[in-house]
Automatic annotation (TrEMBL):
Originating species: Streptomyces humidus
Lineage: Bacteria, Bacillati, Actinomycetota, Actinomycetes, Kitasatosporales
InterPro entries associated with the record: CE4 (IPR052740), Glyco_hydro/deAcase_b/a-brl (IPR011330)
Superkingdom field: Bacteria
Keywords, sorted A to Z: Signal
Region ranges (Disordered): 63-82, 401-425
Example GO BP: carbohydrate metabolic process
Entry protein name: Lipoprotein
């Protein structure tokens, strides 16, 4: 089975204007409304509901605002219960530029009951005039293969990051300078990866200082706690990155290539790699990423033959849908999809992704979630159940049916996980 000719590349530069931090910190399921005020002895008017907690961090670029809103509570599968079909849509580089694709797909996500993962490039939070603050491993200070940003672009990106998080989406990392090839991230040591991760966090935590936009609203999360996973540039350097990530408390990695099977832990992290799916018109399978479809259609030309744009987009859409149905009707392995906010080949891949979101995320038993939410669900499951799911091959449904296949008595759920036995008083 052939894979792809090349793996991923960087995304476009970011972009806009900050908005106020209204309505932060509601908790899970949207279940925490405003608190009811306590009545006084004379039955006075109820006290007003307390305002959302906002605790600024550092220079005020980020803030703690409470638990992230709109997060589903992970449920442990009951004996014999068929697993839901998870689909993860993710975006490398994740910045808002003049194409307004970040804001567009936020709206697409909301309209189709989906949440997604946005892998932010740290240098998209750093203005060009402050490039010297970035010291990339094995490269000269102030260098970056995807450039830096400007004040307007940072403001626009901050606005989208803020709204995305408040809507239940995940903010991961695509690191910084996107160095690939012989002198790229594949040559970095564990310690160099730790340094790169620290700098990616720092640029997010100091965007106000570095832009002078001190009156803008902060990002509504503590990035040190929010950041639990990422995808490496060009899918290179995974081994040393994963060791560094594990030591730093990350929970997953999505920098690999895998078949459509249930994920397992690798080097202590959930291996949530992108996958190979059918490539219509070809005998080999294709990676679930827009860039790889493009390379196998128009080569390195990001704007190929316009007469083929519609066909190429349909080919990507249909390949992703074939992969979806292979899992949905088969082993129910999570489908992992990666993209870039780019208008390659006339924007045909953006159209394809949108059509896939609209089709799959509204089907029964489908959950379009972020990587963090998928990791939460995996953590809540009985390890024996996950091990059994991993015995199913690509597209293989249990011959005896799901009820019989997963009818064994599961181990008790850990404390605090739905389905755990009650604690005796």
């Amino acid at each position: 089975m052939a894979a792809t000719h090349r793996i991923t590349v960087g995304t476009a530069v970011a972009a806009a204007v900050a908005v106020s931090l209204a309505g932060c910190g509601t908790g899970f399921h949207d279940s925490h409304g405003s608190a009811e005020g306590a009545s006084g002895a004379r039955k006075a008017k109820p006290a007003p509901a307390p305002k959302s907690v906002v605790r600024l961090i550092g220079d005020g670029s980020t803030a703690y605002t409470g638990a992230q809103p709109h997060l589903p509570r992970p449920e442990r599968l009951k004996p014999g219960q068929k697993p839901p079909q998870f689909v993860v849509f993710s975006w490398d580089g994740a910045g808002e530029d003049s194409q307004k694709l970040f804001s567009h797909f936020r709206k697409v996500s909301k309209a189709n009951n989906a949440t997604m993962t946005y892998f932010l490039s740290g240098v998209y939070m750093l203005p060009q005039e402050k490039a010297e603050l970035y010291s990339p491993p094995q490269h000269s200070r102030g260098s970056s293969d995807i450039g830096f940003n400007d004040e307007r672009g940072i403001a626009d990106t901050v606005k989208q990051l803020r709204l995305a998080w408040l809507e239940g989406n995940e903010i991961g990392t695509h690191f910084n300078g996107h160095f690939c090839g012989k002198t790229g991230v594949g040559a970095w040591s564990v310690e160099e990866w730790k340094d790169e991760i620290a700098q990616a966090k720092e640029f997010v935590k100091t965007w106000k200082t570095n832009t002078g936009l001190n009156r803008a609203a902060p990002l509504p999360f503590d990035y040190d706690k929010e950041l639990v996973g990422g995808r490496t540039p060009c899918l290179e350097g995974q081994k040393n990155f994963m060791e560094a990530a594990r030591e730093l408390g990350f929970r997953y990695d999505t920098s690999g290539v895998d078949n459509q099977v249930w994920p397992a832990r690798k080097q202590g992290l959930w291996d949530l790699s992108m996958q190979l799916v059918p490539f219509p018109g070809h005998r080999y399978e294709q990676l679930t990423m827009d860039y790889n479809f493009m390379v196998n259609q128009s080569g390195t030309a990001t704007q190929g033959d316009p007469d083929k744009f519609a066909f190429w987009g349909d080919q990507m859409r249909d390949g992703l849908l074939k992969g979806f149905h292979r899992a949905y009707d088969g082993n129910r392995a999570p489908l992992i999809i990666g993209n870039h906010f780019e208008s390659w080949n006339g924007g045909t891949y953006m159209r394809a992704v949108e059509e896939v979101v609209e089709y799959v995320c509204n089907k029964p038993d489908v959950r379009c979630v972020s990587f963090r939410q998928l990791a939460d669900w995996l953590d809540a499951q009985d390890p024996k159940t996950l091990a059994k799911l991993r015995t199913l091959d690509v597209g293989e449904a249990p011959k005896q049916g799901w009820t019989s296949f997963l009818s064994g008595d599961p181990a008790p759920a850990p404390k605090g996980v739905p389905g755990a036995p009650a604690v005796k008083q």
